[in-house]
Write a structure and sequence with these properties.
27 helices; six-stranded parallel β-sheet; five-stranded parallel β-sheet; binds thiamine diphosphate; elongated; alpha/beta; about 675 residues; single chain
């Protein structure tokens, strides 16, 4: 990096006095010392990565990163994503040193302890400045792609004065070895996300030892192949790092990779450069030696005042930029201002409720047989004009998923005027990007694939749930009902697996009306992601009477009450609710009093109070029908209930044949009901 001018902090007019007086070396060593000390005190953690990346982080935070520590929610701040989340002490040290609220020294001393703001891996919501939860390697990189995309989408809407920032992401060898990195890198390169800068901690070490044990990729060539700008620097040379970042910022039509060659555990006298520093305390002797080697002659957790003052000055250097941004933001109308963070304010919420109620009335009146993927598309056509920042997409199944509507316009490489992303066949990358879109603020992402491929997105879905992000997964072809594509494409265990995940609403609407209700709930659940499990095949409208009330909101409800005391309760979800209704009619002809319960969302039903649940479920024996495995249904069936569903993988055939073949029919439901009734009479 010799060809261009060097950037010196002394020449940077935005630097203030205190920052100029603290040396780079001291500031970087403060990070190293805090990382060593916190890991040592916790007796667990990862000191190597923060020590190795301290120089890069210092250059970034003191010379480039646009942030104001006292306004961590500034919508136009640069985003900093620590994809290599095991190096959490790097982030915690930076947040403390730059003066973020709630990150006191005490928190660093309580690293990895119960109730601290400094968990083992950074967790979104635990402290201001933590932009996303990382730790599962590669996810942060995927999030960063979504954030960089959000920035461009919002820039197009709001203009440079309001939205105009970068996304920086620190990724390690592990992140780049993960499969998700391929999807993320490829998507970012294709879309020309020029505001994304990845700082690769190129230390050639992972847990098992040198990376040469398992990988020989040329990362530079790999990124270049995906149309990234790339650079390679000595990650311990502040001027080279600064120049590389400066150059990367100047490239606006491509994302940038800066491979920073670093030494893991930099400063540790005998362990630096080895896997021994990756994920274990260095030990008292090694820490003593590192203090000597780094000329850091201070007590554990002590950061001398001039150095801390220098860091705090870095935390305020964009105060004027923040102030002028705040002035500009004041000129926005209130909904636009609110829309920068949460697009669904009270007014939008009211509009959603009105639109869904009107659509439900239409669906009831028309009574058309529609697949729920088609109903979902119709719902989206109503929602898109009223929900700002509703950004759709699909992993190459736009037509199948019904995610692309007449009102959708496609985002193209370098052109961000649209509201629809062709994510390509990159389910995992799509889900991680959607987390980034949601985390950025201003965007409500929805994206589709087949339900069976929720497995390909599951690690990111888990993070949507853990972080409490409003992400809507439109997952169609939700059972053997998809037919001829066969068992590779027919989900059987996915519903149960997704229902096992905390803070995730798995919704399986039975008709158009429930589908509209599910969408309403998905958009209004601000802190919970939603899976919409939708059919390929047409379904009759079962809700014959229009209700303004969202009956799906309680998770389950009585669709048809028995005429008199119940002999049996039939429970159905999605496409199989119609079978329960048919079975109830058959039984009625025989004088059997059957109630039919629709249960579109198990989690919401579980959250109701006991009296509601008991009233819905009743005390008669129960039969549930769902074209999936029965795992989990025990809870709603009790010891004596019967389950009609799948007991293994599906098969390739027309849907009707499959339902018969696997015994998922109204006749089977009625027979199971009769048997249960007989048993209770015996
Ligand atoms: C998906 C996933 N798999 C495995 C791990 C466990 N793990 C944590 S760090 C790490 C090695 C990462 O190596 P690198 O990125 O080079 O980090 P460094 O050794 O430089 O700190 C592994 C395998 C993880 N956190 N996430």
């Amino acid at each position: 990096m010799t060809e261009e001018r060097l950037i010196s902090p002394l020449k940077d007019p935005t630097q203030n006095q205190a920052l100029q007086e603290a040396t780079h070396q001291d500031m970087a060593n403060a990070i190293r010392a805090l990382a060593m000390d916190a890991v040592q005190k916790a007796d667990s953690g990862h000191p190597g990565m923060p020590m190795g990346m301290a120089d890069v982080a210092t250059v970034l935070f003191t010379r480039f990163l646009k942030f104001d520590a006292s306004h961590p929610d500034w919508p136009d701040r640069d985003r900093f994503v620590l994809s290599a989340g095991h190096g959490s002490m790097l982030l915690y040290a930076l947040l403390y040193l730059t003066g973020y609220p709630e990150m006191e020294l005490e928190e660093l001393k309580n690293f990895r302890q119960l109730g601290s703001r400094t968990p083992g891996h950074p967790e979104y919501g635990h402290a201001p400045g933590i932009e996303t939860t990382t730790g599962p390697l590669g996810q942060g990189l995927g999030n960063a792609v979504g954030m960089a995309l959000a920035e461009r989408l919002l820039n197009r809407r709001y203009g440079d004065e309001i939205v105009n920032h970068h996304t920086y992401c620190v990724a390690g060898d592990g992140c780049l070895m993960e499969g998700i990195s391929h999807e993320a890198i490829s998507l970012a390169g294709h879309l020309k996300l020029g505001r994304l800068i990845v700082l690769f901690d190129d230390n050639q070490i992972s847990i098992d030892g040198p990376t040469s044990l398992s990988v020989s990729d040329d990362q530079i060539e790999r990124f270049r192949a995906s149309h990234w700008h790339t650079a390679r620097v000595d990650g311990h040379d502040p001027e080279a790092i600064a120049l590389a970042i400066e150059n990367a910022r100047a490239v606006t039509d491509r994302p940038s990779l800066i491979a920073c060659r670093t030494i893991i555990g930099y400063g540790a006298p005998s362990k630096a450069g080895t896997a021994a520093t990756h994920g274990a305390p260095l030990g008292d002797e090694e820490i003593k030696g590192a203090r000597e080697k780094l000329h850091w002659r201070h007590q554990p957790f002590e950061v001398p005042k001039p150095i801390l003052t220098g860091w705090r000055a870095a935390g305020t250097r964009h105060r004027a930029a923040y102030d002028s941004w705040a002035q500009a933001a004041k000129r926005l109308d209130a909904p636009s201002r609110a829309g920068l963070t949460d697009p669904i304010d009270d007014k939008v919420r009211a509009a959603i409720l009105a639109a869904i109620a009107a659509l439900k009335a239409d669906f009831t009146r028309e009574g058309a047989k529609l697949a729920t993927r088609q109903s979902s598309q119709k719902v989206l056509e109503k929602l898109l004009p009223i929900v700002p920042g509703l950004i759709g997409g699909s992993a190459d199944l736009a037509g199948s998923n019904g995610t692309l509507t007449k009102l959708s316009s496609v985002v193209k490489p370098g052109e961000f005027a649209g509201n629809y992303i062709h994510y390509g066949v990159r389910e995992h990358g799509m889900a991680a990007a959607m987390n980034g879109l949601a985390l950025h603020g201003g965007i409500v992402p929805y994206g589709g694939t087949f339900l069976v491929f929720s497995d390909y997105c599951r690690p990111s879905i888990r993070l949507s749930a853990l972080m409490g992000q409003r992400v809507v997964y439109v997952m169609t072809h939700d059972s053997i009902g998809l037919g001829e594509d066969g068992p590779t494409h027919q989900p059987v265990e996915q519903l149960a697996a997704l229902r096992a995940m905390p803070n995730l609403h798995v919704m399986r609407p039975a008709d158009s009306i429930e589908c509209a209700e599910c969408w309403e709930l998905a958009l209004l659940a601000k802190n919970t992601p939603t899976i919409l499990a939708l059919t390929r095949q047409g379904l009759p409208v079962l809700r014959t009477a229009h209700t303004e009330e969202n009956l799906t909101a309680k998770g389950a409800y009585v669709l048809i009450e028995a005429k008199g005391a119940r002999d049996v309760t039939l429970i159905g979800t999605g496409s199989e609710l119609a079978l329960a209704v048919q079975a109830a009619k058959m039984l009625e002809g025989e004088g059997v009093r059957a109630a039919v319960i629709s249960m579109p969302c198990v989690e919401l039903f579980a959250a109701q109070d006991e009296s509601y649940r008991n009233a819905v479920l009743g005390s008669a024996p129960r039969v549930a029908v769902e074209a999936a495995v029965g795992f989990g249904w025990e809870r709603w069936l009790g010891a004596d209930g019967a389950f009609i569903g799948m007991h293994g993988f599906g098969a390739s055939a027309p849907a009707e044949d499959l339902y018969k073949h696997f015994g998922i029919t109204a006749e089977a439901v009625a027979a199971a009901a009769r048997e249960l009734i007989d048993k209770t009479k015996r």
